[in-house]
Amino acid sequence: MILADKIAKLRKQLGWSQEELAEKLDVSRQSVSKWESANSIPDLNRIIMLADIFDVTTDFLLKDENETFENNTQTTKESDTIQVSLDQATKYVENKLAVSSLNTKGIMLCICSVVPLFFFMAMAETNRLNITEDIAGALGVVSILVMVSIAIHFFIKTNQFETQTSIIDDEKFELEYGVHSIFTDKLHKIKPTYNTRLSMSIFMFIISFVPVMVISMFFDGSDMVMLMLILMLFIISGGIYIISPISAEHDAYNAILLDHSIDTVKNKRARRAEKLASFYWPLLTAIYLGWSLWTMDWDITWIVWPVGAVLFTALVGLMELFEKDDC
């Protein structure tokens, strides 16, 4: 049996399409088609990769006298890789959306938890509700505790989805035949919506400080500043509400299409960036809000975002540099 027939036979035994095998090898589907039709021969590096993917020896692939498939234990891929079906992948997306919904509610509650405090303080400043600053502070603190407690409840509830999502998030997996193309199509369809909502949310985050800056420049009253702070927090919450669902769906599709059975350089880079982003951006947001509320210099603190974006890119590049040094 020649090399072309062996590639086709082994690929079909694993239930992969030519497109899926091509993605694992970082080549085009046409290249795989030419290999299997004997119109071209893969180079040495690709043959080594094929041997690793199929869990066979290069001798088996290159020597025509090696033809045994059923009885040769070297020719079958035996691993702990989990096969993910279409139903499992669809359920994974649904669970990720449910987790995103709970997290979004919790984050919005945490962000808006200080809204009652600002409101009552503004009312005490203008004597509109006939309350003192001490009463306003007490009511605000109680509101913060209640809203944060509810937010924590939402965060804790996300634990119930960990077992349903662990197969794709934490285990080595491969997609069953046809699943890859289905979710590739889904990802392609939501891209325009994702890009639009991402742009809208970023715009809202950037302009959120504008009302506070304008009021602080033209008005002296702290009550107006506090009311504009409330507006700023609502704008930020609105941006999170817009981007969170579509972002969760987009990330879920990418996670499904990220084949963990082949630890490519691209996959490693993506996972490193995701791990960094998971704590970097929340930390940067906390720094921005803390600095802004401490100094009330909203016309200056916005500089955190462009500087933070450049720093994030630099950190990703630095991680790549250390990775290469370790190798």
Task: Quickly list its features.
327 residues, elongated, two-stranded parallel ribbon, 2 strands
Q: Mind explaining what this structure looks like?
A:
The radius of gyration is 27 Å and the shape is elongated. A two-stranded parallel ribbon has the order 1-2. The protein starts with a helix and ends with a helix. With 327 residues, the chain is mainly α. The longest helix has 36 residues, at 222-257. It is built from 15 helices and 2 strands. α6 packs antiparallel against α8 (133-157) and α7 packs antiparallel against α8. Helices cover 76% and strands 2% of the residues.
Summary, kept brief:
The protein is an all-alpha fold and about 325 residues long. Helix content is about 75%, strand content about 0%. A two-stranded parallel sheet has the order 1-2.
Structural class determined from secondary elements: mainly alpha
Q: Write down how many β-strands occur, each being a DSSP E stretch of 2 or more residues.
A: 2
Instruction: Give me the strand/helix succession.
Output: HHHHHEHHHHEHHHHHH
**General shape:** elongated
In terms of topology, how is this protein built?
Elements (H helix, E strand, L loop, with lengths): L2 H11 L4 H8 L3 H8 L7 H11 L3 H5 L19 E3 L1 H27 L2 H12 L6 H25 L4 H9 L2 E3 L3 H29 L2 H9 L3 H36 L7 H31 L2 H4 L2 H23 L1
Helix pairs in contact: 2-3, 6-8, 6-12, 7-8, 7-12, 10-12, 11-12, 13-15
